[in-house]
Design goal:
The chain is mainly alpha-helical and about 150 residues long. It has six helices and five strands. Helix 3 crosses helix 4.
Length: about 150
């Protein structure tokens, strides 16, 4: 199998090892995996084992998740709207709570109630089951209307 040119993929995507959270090897593996290249083929191209490629990919995805969490935390620090949705709350009540908090802060939310429920339900993971919020979650809304959900 002929693999795409990894250097070209990284350059096109704007990869910068100096300012990012991924090593070059992690970026290479992710660039190829995102194009559905099997780990075994990547291992052969890179002169390593499939297990090593799997480990590198796993570490890269963990680093990305940590970076996302850091960005969400930083945004939450400055978000004009932050509200805690307590365990036991019905997910259907969340949009009105968000809209009320945003009205008080003068922040416009561009999401409909169903969109907010889906976003909160998806982002909260297993903290929400069906319509029930099972663990406290924090919903923040930035001044530009971006909604973030954190446990």
């Amino acid at each position: 199998m002929t693999l795409p040119d990894v250097d070209e993929l990284l350059e096109t995507a704007g990869f910068d090892e100096e300012s990012g959270v991924l090593t070059r090897r992690q970026a290479e593996v992710l660039a190829l995996r995102e194009r559905d290249i099997p780990q075994a083929d990547i291992a052969e191209e890179l002169g390593t084992s499939r297990a090593n490629v799997s480990s590198v990919e796993s570490s890269a995805r963990e680093n990305i998740e940590k970076a996302r969490e850091t960005v969400a935390f930083a945004e939450a620090l400055t978000a004009p709207v932050q509200l805690t949705v307590e365990a036991g709350t019905d997910l259907y009540d969340v949009p009105n709570r968000v809209y009320s908090a945003c009205d008080e802060a003068g922040v416009k939310v561009t999401r409909t109630a169903p969109e907010l429920m889906k976003l909160v339900g998806d982002a909260a993971g297993d903290a929400v089951h069906g319509r029930e919020v099972r663990r406290d979650i924090t919903v923040s809304v930035t001044s530009d209307g971006t909604v973030r959900v954190r446990e």
